[in-house]
Design brief:
This protein is α+β, with helices and mostly antiparallel strands. It contains one helix and seven strands, in the order E-E-E-E-E-E-E-H. 19% of the residues lie in helices and 46% in strands. Strands 1, 2, 3, 4, 5, 6 and 7 form a seven-stranded antiparallel sheet that branches. The chain is globular and about 30 Å long.
């Protein structure tokens, strides 16, 4: 679990906490990372548009690379800022997994 000091709870959805991640002064305001599954070893998060809740992709474990990866929906367009925010989220999850 990532350090809660970097997160702000933005609501709940059927017992699953939606969290907006923050990195220093930068708030990741366009994305919501919602944990949708926990296999016991790894987790799966759905990446959603924070404005309308549309699903943009999933972050899940990719065994071939032994790391979390982003699997996007077809024809999903990503800005450099959203890519950076998603990368930060994945790196945070990898660090938490090592602990």
């Amino acid at each position: 679990m990532p350090d809660d000091s970097n997160a702000t709870n933005v609501g709940t959805s059927s017992e699953i906490s939606k969290t907006r991640w923050m990195d220093g002064d930068h708030s990741m305001t366009y994305l919501v990372f919602e944990e949708i599954r926990d296999t016991g070893k790894t987790k799966v998060w759905q990446v959603q548009n924070s404005d309308n809740g549309s699903v943009l992709g999933e972050i899940k474990w990719y065994g071939g690379w032994r790391r979390y990866v982003l699997v996007t929906e077809a024809d999903c367009i990503w800005s450099p800022e959203c890519l950076r925010d998603t990368s930060k989220f994945i790196l945070d999850q990898m660090e938490a997994r090592r602990k």
